[in-house]
Amino acid sequence: MKLFYTPGACSLAPHFALAEAGVNYQLVPVDLRAKTFPGGDFKTINPKGYVPALQLDNGEVLSECSAILQYVAELKPDAKLLPQVGQLARYRCLEWLNYIATELHKGFGPLWDPSTSEAAQKAAKDKLTQRLNFVEAELEGKDYLLGAQYSIADSYLYTVLSWSHYVKFDLTAWPRLLGFMERVNIRPATQQVLKAEGLLK
Ligand SMILES: N[C@@H](CCC(=O)N[C@@H](CS)C(=O)NCC(=O)O)C(=O)O
Description:
Elements: E1 2-5, H1 12-21, E2 26-29, E3 36-37, E4 40-41, E5 53-55, E6 61-63, H2 65-75, H3 88-112, H4 118-138, H5 152-162, H6 175-185, H7 188-196
Parallel strand pairs: 1-2
Antiparallel strand pairs: 1-5, 3-4, 5-6
Helix pairs in contact: 1-2, 1-5, 1-7, 3-4, 3-5, 5-6
Glutathione is lined by residues 9-10, 32, 49-52, 64-65, 101.
């Protein structure tokens, strides 16, 4: 399998999942501005023009963070990255993936865009604050989003929270989020991935 990624982008989430699952994969860097990768035009791989994209061994390409995360988790059920079909915890995990994708991941969007007006930046930060207040409350007494067990939802949450540093969105108001970041950060798979993407200081 090949993961098309850009360092620090949302492709970090499936990268964490691949490392946590312990499957074999290759990394292919994508230049998001030029929409190229070392093999040429990235749109020949993912016509959507964005990362992540996972090229399977049969050549098929899977896109969308949440779909790739679930696919990777199910390659290695023993890694327990996604609870089994029929368990309520599985649907809690899917509930989180959707929340992270639509409320948090896309909530950060305006903060990355230099053309966003000051008023729109403030509105985006206010909305993100409400969304993070919810996550903070949900993390009470838990190590990870589902409780004691790390899951693909945590791979994704860590990824989007890691952007707060780049867009100058201070997380100190959310001590549980900071504790969560520290816990995920020291996982061997996290360190391995951050190193591979050149993100370790
Ligand atoms: N809906 C996609 C969004 C992916 C996405 O936003 N990727 C960003 C990086 S975090 C990207 O590649 N942006 C470049 C672009 O849209 O041109 C998903 O959930 O995977």
